[in-house]
Model the fold of this input.
Amino acid sequence: MLQGKKIVVGITGGIAAYKIPLLVRLLKKEGAEVKVVMTDFAKSFVTPLTLATVSGEPVLSEFFNKDDGTWNSHVELGLWADALILAPLTANTMAKMAHGIADNFLLTVILSSRCPVFVAPTMDLDMFQHRVTQENLQKLIELGYHYIAPGEGFLASGLEGPGRMKEPEELFQFLKDYFEEDEFLKGKRVMVSAGPTQEPFDAVRYIGNRSSGKMGIALAKALAKKGAHVDLVLGPVSEDAQFPGITVYPVETAAEMAVACTKLFSGADLGIMAAAVADFTPVQTTGSKIKKEAGFHNIEVKATEDILAGLGKAKQPGQLLIGFALETDDEVENARKKLERKNLDMIVLNSLKDVGAGFGTNTNKISVLKKDGALHNYDLKSKDAVAEDILSEIRSLMEEKA
Ligand code: CTP
Done:
């Protein structure tokens, strides 16, 4: 997977830097080209000589070579890389990254890169949990950086808790999984719904919700990247959903969404209802604009069709069906009831109690419940990274079914 891949390993000044030569060796053994960039402080924890020896390349820290004046181009290096991994990443460098500060060579390489950037923050417990560190981390996640959460355990300070860098083997596996090129959904047809629905009660007004469609669209793209043909039934959103392998079916109301989803699911291997379907729709709607003198005191509503429950009833033995649940109380219990009631194979739970999860954000925090009772809790991640996690759950569902 990593054969020929160009990886920049960025090291900042944390004690875990002493473990990074092992990561470089693992990458080299797998056939990757590795260039190491270090901050000055990182050199106190591991020597450039060690890293130059294991990578087979000079280690870079300065903008130019003081002996002969040759220029180390941060722009070229940023463009050269297929991936950047920053491990260990200190609170200091993380704060600078979150604010676009570029006062050393490593930071300019990061700003010049166009490739995926993996960040493995490592620091002491209280520094990690400090609000400002968490805010900076949140910002990086929103910017699309791939977050490799620190493990819990015994820290160099003697404290115990989160902050410990993942072991080099785990960092290596993270990169390997990312570059894994497999199209396990090739030839599969998937129906995905995303976005809100809008239920009009006059020519200009509607009952709706704040769903941005980001999660469902990220999922549709991740599925298409793995070779699936995705039929995306999409409520009114501003997010761009055009992507090779995705056919978009724009809809507005729950009733329109029901028709499209039911039809497309009948020919699909897998259905995923990520849409935030309105639960109520006005009994009456008029083609003209209601004047305010007429009053809006009574907008009579009726329940919309539960699309997912309908798909659950129609589900054939060869098909898989996945739903989402947005809960505020007794989250797991309520999600489990939905999974059973709607005859699902899996349900993805968002709790509105989690900061950074749910509508409109670029991040999400999910738990996944399966029909067999399995429950997996995931960390807060970018919606793209969450889509990857959902994808790996889908993979295991399909393997269990095969
Ligand atoms: N859903 C649907 N049709 C509806 C309402 C919801 O297909 N009319 C789907 C959603 O796309 C989601 C799942 O059902 O996959 C759960 O949605 P959620 O709003 O969490 O639950 P509800 O069934 O609407 O129940 P409640 O609002 O009471 O929690």
Observations:
- The first helix runs from residue 20 to 29.
- The chain has two domains: 6-180, 189-401.
- The domain at 189-401 is CATH 3.40.50.10300 (Rossmann fold).
- DSSP finds 13 helices and 21 strands in the chain.
